[in-house]
């Protein structure tokens, strides 16, 4: 019979137990031993849960106190020199110093850089390597967790990040070639694999997700060299795991490597099954990733079963394993805990536990157990019924999208005309100043929101509190001398959740936590149905702010791509269709804001870049619909209405054409940390519209003085036309305190005034 396996489980715990333990430990409230006890308890609980759900083999070493890439660096002693002194005091302190920085006992160490794990919302720590780097097997975590699982009676498969992906995901601090370190890295891998073999591991999984990326010849050569070296040693059998996409042009490479099995993602890339079956050597097993490790929907038997039947016919039962497409760390743990969800909405959903249960049923169906067939037929019938459940299809929205004219993406006039009209109607000084939207979310605000949610604070009281806050923010901005004001977003818990809660088609879970990085978790909203906007969402707040002042108030919306990117999205429609539905809802909001007298409207798209597909060949298609969605949202307004967008990242090289095609009248971007370097991309492209390169790094409590901001602005003016330049912080101010904000914005206005005198 085919085995049910999986390659990783959410480690944070159903009630975020690991988060709590980590944060208590960091506060000094619990010692390292207590933290490690919690970790052990969670591992044991999760293995038990997985086996009870039907897994035959469980992964081990998928657990991490912070991040699996950091674990790999520490495992192989790739510890930058600055952290060594902390490590020699305590390995745990050293580990957390690398993860979070360390300011204690005379040390002041910054953390490793953090970046996104492929195209997920998980972030890993980027190992820092250098030429001549030495590696050594420095700890026994994989071995210890294997023994731990075995002693609990489980059949366990250690999971390791493979050597080539490890290097490709690292950076060298001296600019040297990462792959040149491969030969030094392999001996400790060999040593570890030997130890695991001695301990009785029959299989080890080596994760090589980089196999789904565009690889060059050097990368491919590194794969060949690495796996030849591992094959020459005594190791358990090796499962080479790819996920997050198709192997594509790396398939021939993957099947040429001397390993014993291959895991492929048949959710994101079901079309690769035939090619994989054709190419798979007779000695390989195939681990078929057939249920979605990235999303929270039940799988469709009508899609999955034919894939599995085909693989079974070709390979037989012994050579076929059933698995989720990737580690389950990207989904919440257990849908059973969502007791408050409407059962109709819950029925088509599956979290980690339910996904393993599904795999069990598929395995039983392959073995022709009649109950399994019945269960799958019932599941398919349920999904078919759900597709027509109330709220899933909104005929009005479908029809509107179908008949949407291409004109909808166009502004009435080109930028130069709009610019002229806007400068008449808006009457702003040269080099106008503004902010990105949010002002400090004070403890009082957070408490009031929590109390309001809990029913402890009435609607009227909460409302007056928010109004008072808006008034305070408006008065402050007038007082400090900003030109385009905002209402400050005090009513928003989160920039996606706030809108999702007001749109049809969205739902929210109670315990649907997913690890974002370390102890930080997010609870992505779920898009289950067609998106529609039953009523205006922000007009009241922006309108109230505008009623308080003669200065223009900027309306503030979260853009369609960001709404999509930070949610769990239904899988029965193409993502771009869902995005267009959101764009239409936002278009109506933009229209209503305009009608309410709001002359400047910002549509934030901080997640546009992270939506880029993993393969370059897919970029253009994505960018085309992403830009189109933004333009649908912004397209309906008069020339006089000024559309802003905001993107807080520092890499525009790959997307500058798309950003220009969005044709926002003004874009604000993050530049203060790169000291305006990233403006280069805009300059080289001759970006014509307004730009506000951030002059205040809101991620840091440090308040720059006016001279420092002025210096940045001089740099900006070296390359931009004065008519183009706006002056603003890098991002919203919600995480900062009022005293810092008062100072920083005061300095910003002073630097703007100085610069105007110099013009
Ligand atoms: N308008 C949002 C704010 O100011 C933008 C946040 C973001 O870009 N991430 O908080
Ligand atoms: Zn931002």
Automatic annotation (TrEMBL):
5-methyltetrahydropteroyltri-L-glutamate binds at residues 16-19, 116, 121, 520-521, 566, 610. L-homocysteine binds at residues 436-438, 489, 604. Zn(2+) 1 binds at residues 646, 648, 670, 731. Pathway: Amino-acid biosynthesis; L-methionine biosynthesis via de novo pathway; L-methionine from L-homocysteine (MetE route): step 1/1. InterPro entries: Cbl-indep_Met_Synth_N, Cobalamin-indep_Met_synthase, Met_Synth_C/arc, UROD/MetE-like_sf. The active site is at 699 (proton donor). Pfam families: Meth_synt_1, Meth_synt_2. GO terms for molecular function: 5-methyltetrahydropteroyltriglutamate-homocysteine S-methyltransferase activity; zinc ion binding. This is 5-methyltetrahydropteroyltriglutamate--homocysteine methyltransferase. It comes from Rhodanobacter glycinis.
């Amino acid at each position: 019979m085919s085995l049910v396996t999986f390659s990783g489980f959410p480690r944070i715990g159903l009630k975020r137990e690991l988060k709590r333990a980590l944060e208590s430990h960091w506060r000094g409230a619990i010692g390292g031993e207590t933290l490690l006890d919690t970790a052990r308890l969670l591992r044991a609980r999760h293995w038990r849960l997985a086996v009870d759900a039907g897994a035959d083999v469980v992964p081990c070493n998928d657990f991490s106190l912070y991040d699996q890439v950091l674990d790999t660096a520490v495992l192989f002693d790739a510890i930058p020199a600055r952290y060594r002194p902390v490590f020699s005091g305590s390995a745990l302190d050293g580990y957390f110093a690398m993860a979070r920085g360390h300011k204690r006992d005379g040390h002041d160490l910054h953390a490793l850089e953090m970046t996104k794990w492929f195209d997920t919302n998980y972030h890993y720590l980027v190992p820092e390597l250098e030429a001549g780097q030495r590696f050594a097997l420095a700890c026994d975590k994989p071995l210890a967790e294997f023994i731990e699982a075995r002693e609990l009676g489980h059949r366990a498969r250690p999971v390791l990040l493979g050597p080539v992906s490890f290097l490709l995901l690292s950076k060298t601090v001296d600019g040297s070639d990462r792959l040149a370190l491969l030969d030094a890295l392999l001996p400790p891998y060999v040593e570890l694999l030997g130890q695991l073999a001695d301990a009785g591991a029959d299989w080890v999984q080596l994760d090589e997700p980089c196999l789904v990326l565009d690889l060059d010849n050097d990368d491919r050569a590194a794969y060949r060299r690495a796996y030849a070296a591992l094959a020459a040693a005594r190791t358990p059998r090796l499962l080479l795991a790819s996920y997050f996409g198709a192997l594509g042009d790396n398939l021939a490479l993957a099947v040429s490597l001397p390993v014993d099995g291959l895991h492929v993602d048949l959710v994101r890339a079901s079309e690769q099954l035939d090619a994989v079956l054709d190419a798979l050597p007779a000695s390989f097993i195939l681990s078929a990733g057939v249920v979605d490790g990235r999303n929270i929907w039940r799988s469709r038997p009508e899609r999955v079963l034919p894939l599995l039947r085909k693989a079974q016919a070709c390979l037989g039962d012994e050579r076929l394993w059933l698995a989720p497409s990737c580690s389950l760390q990207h989904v919440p743990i257990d849908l059973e805990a969502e007791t408050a969800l409407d059962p109709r909405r819950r029925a088509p959903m599956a979290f980690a536990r339910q996904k393993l249960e599904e795999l069990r049923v598929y395995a039983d169906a392959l073995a022709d157990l009649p109950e399994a067939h019945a269960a799958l037929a019932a599941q398919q019938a349920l999904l078919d019924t759900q597709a027509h459940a109330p709220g899933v299809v909104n005929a009005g929205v479908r029809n509107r999208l179908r008949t949407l004219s291409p004109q909808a993406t166009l502004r009435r006039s080109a930028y130069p005309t709009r610019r002229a009209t806007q400068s008449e109607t808006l009457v702003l000084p040269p080099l106008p100043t503004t902010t990105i939207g949010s002002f400090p979310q004070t403890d009082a605000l957070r408490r009031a929101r929590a109390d309001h949610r809990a029913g402890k604070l009435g609607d009227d009281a909460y409302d007056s509190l928010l109004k008072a806050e808006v008034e305070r923010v408006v008065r402050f901005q007038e007082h400090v001398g900003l030109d385009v004001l905002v209402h400050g977003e005090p009513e928003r818990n989160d920039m996606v959740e706030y809108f999702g809660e007001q749109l049809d088609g969205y739902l929210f879970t109670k315990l649907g936590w997913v690890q974002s990085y370390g102890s930080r978790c997010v609870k992505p909203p779920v898009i289950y149905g067609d998106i529609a906007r039953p009523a205006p969402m922000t007009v009241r707040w922006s309108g109230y702010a505008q009623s308080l002042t003669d200065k223009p108030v900027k309306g503030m919306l979260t853009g369609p791509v960001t709404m999509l990117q930070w949610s769990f999205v239904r899988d029965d429609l193409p993502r771009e269709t869902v995005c267009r539905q959101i764009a239409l809802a936002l278009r109506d909001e933009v229209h209503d804001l305009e009608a309410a007298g709001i002359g400047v409207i910002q549509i934030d798209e901080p997640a546009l870049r992270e939506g880029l597909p993993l393969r370059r060949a897919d970029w253009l298609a994505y960018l085309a619909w992403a830009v189109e969605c933004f333009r649908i949202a912004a397209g309906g307004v008069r020339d006089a209405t000024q559309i802003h967008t905001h993107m807080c990242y520092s890499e525009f090289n790959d997307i500058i054409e798309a950003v220009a095609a969005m044709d926002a009248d003004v874009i604000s971007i993050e530049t203060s940390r790169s000291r305006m370097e990233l403006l280069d991309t805009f300059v080289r492209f001759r970006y014509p519209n307004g730009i506000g390169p951030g002059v205040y790094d809101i991620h840091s409590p440090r308040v720059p003085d006016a001279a420092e901001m002025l210096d940045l602005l001089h740099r900006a003016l070296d390359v931009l036309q004065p008519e183009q330049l706006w002056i603003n912080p890098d991002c919203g101010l919600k995480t900062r305190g009022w005293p810092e904000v008062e100072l920083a914005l005061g300095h910003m206005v002073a630097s703007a005034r100085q610069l105007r005198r110099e013009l």
